[in-house]
Amino acid sequence: MPRDPYxxxxxxRDASEQQIKKAFxxxxxxxxxxxxxxxxxxxxxxxxxxxANEILSDAERRATYDRYGHDGLRSGGxxxxxxxxxxISDLFNTFFGGASAxxxxxxxxxxxxxxxxxxxxxxxDLLEAAEGxxxxxxxxxxxxxxHCHGNGAEPGTPIKTCARCGGAGQLQAVTRTLLxxxxxxxxxxxxxxxxxxxxxxxxxxHGSGRLASKRTLEVDVPAGIADGQRIRLGGHGHAGxxxxxxxxxxxxxxxxxxxxxxxxxDHLITALDVAAPLAALGGTLEVPTLDGxxxxxxxxxxxxxxxxTLRGAGMPALRRSRRGDLRVVVNVVVxxxxxxxxxxxxxxxxxxxxxxxxxxxxxVFAKLRRALGSQAA
Length: 377
Ligand SMILES: [Zn+2]
Ligand SMILES: [Zn+2]
Prior knowledge:
Helix content: 25-40%
Bound molecules: zinc ion
């Protein structure tokens, strides 16, 4: 289980954006393996700090974490992407503008990695979710450096065979133990497994071959998408190392609450105020729908909490042609603050009512349920 990101960064739960940024920079400076060679766990701690920062520096992610913890982030499609970020030296460059320029960071033992996945959140209103939308997303991702075409050498300068590993890209460490000689193979820390190093590192990416950049992408959100669903865009994540494939981008959709409708699957529910006399008389009502308004027949004698259904006026079903229904819960409003004439009319009406007008087939329990509103949904 990953640790609490607030604890990792050592900030209070109500820390400001600025405080979080500052705490992360401070930690990163202390833990960066180039700086902190004596602590064997520095790399792990640095990654932990970077992940904590990734969660807390994004308002949406932070809110999700505050409410649902790490599980909530994972089920929302978020995965920490520092594993695939490449060398820590890249990461450091990304955050600190080349503070470790020219120095080689530690290599990942696996060598060239696929680019990491990214997640970005978008917010839609209910109508956009119903109709589908094109949404521009902006995010930061690591790209191949165009100045050196990803090979890390300043253009026009030679790339020479790595002197440290003799071009093998690997180093062997022999240690003597009680059980005999142990040979460990490691990725060369000079060339990161390439076997070749630029004589003069690229001035744009400082030899890493990759750079952080801002990207903008237009995302097609399908009609019928629901709150919390995610869209996967293959290949739009971080660039991979030295020709390895890029990661994916996950767009996590949030649908804002609507003033008029509550969504239940593909159905929409709304409440409509109807004056008690009209509910008794019946008539034609105008009801709001997602695309304007529609009329619906109100039967005479409609009781509070009864549900009228408008077929096909709900949400479109994702990747299917049929639509859900609109359910209109009738909220019978008893008139207040009567004028003298209205009062007289009501008195006359009340006097004229007989048992026949009030009788219903419902049991006491059914009446209670209705009165308490559990019929509504
Ligand atoms: Zn470059
Ligand atoms: Zn080497």
